[in-house]
Amino acid sequence: MFGDLRRSRRIAYTSVFIGLITLGGWISVPFVPVPFTLQTFFVLLAAAVMKREAVIPVTLYVLLGTLGLPVFHNGVAGFGILLGPTGGYLAGFIPAAFIAGIAYESDSVALHIAGLAGAALLILLCGVAWLIGSTGMAPAAAFIIGMAVFVPGEAAKAGAVYMIERQLP
Questions:
Q1: CA distance 150 to 40
Q2: Domains of the chain (ranges plus CATH)?
Q3: What is the spatial distance between Cα 138 and Cα 120, in angstroms, rounded to a whole number?
Q4: Which of 87, 94, 100, 119 pairs with 53 at a CA distance of 20 to 30 A?
């Protein structure tokens, strides 16, 4: 590892983003059936900073929470969380980080915006699909409760990530 600056940065960023995504889960507004948190903000920020390598901290975050470390929203943990109503959103973090990360490997501003929007939408769609499967909720209800109410917040988070990333060196 000595002298390998890229590897050292990857390890440092991975640690930082696991911590930030965890912190984002503690910044939580109770909502039914899924709380409003800042986890997605930090997943998208990881993608903007780390590009496709953002999959590393996001996957480790989900794995750590699944294995019992209290990293999910409000300190909950365990495999049961993935089976509950929030499981689809958490699982959606991984492909979302990859999609937004790929978009950020381009120099195109339009691709950056599309990548962030697509990633945020993918997280919501995974969440809705899992809500339907895990709770037996009707698709229309799952769409309204699990997606429609979150779209403005996700758009604001994606916009904030875009603005913050533009200021980074």
A1: 11
A2: 5-167 (1.10.1760.20)
A3: 22
A4: 87
The per-residue pLDDT string of the chain (169 residues; one tens digit each, 9 = 90 and over) reads 577 899 999 999 999 999 999 999 998 777 766 778 899 999 999 999 999 999 999 999 999 999 999 999 888 999 999 999 889 999 999 999 999 999 999 999 999 999 999 999 999 999 999 999 999 999 999 999 999 999 999 999 999 999 999 998 8
Report CA-CA distances (Å) from 163 to 22, 30, 112, 158.
Answer: 22, 27, 11, 9
Alpha-carbon gap, residue 96 to 75, rounded angstroms: 22
What is the residue type of 102? I
Determine the residue type at 151: V
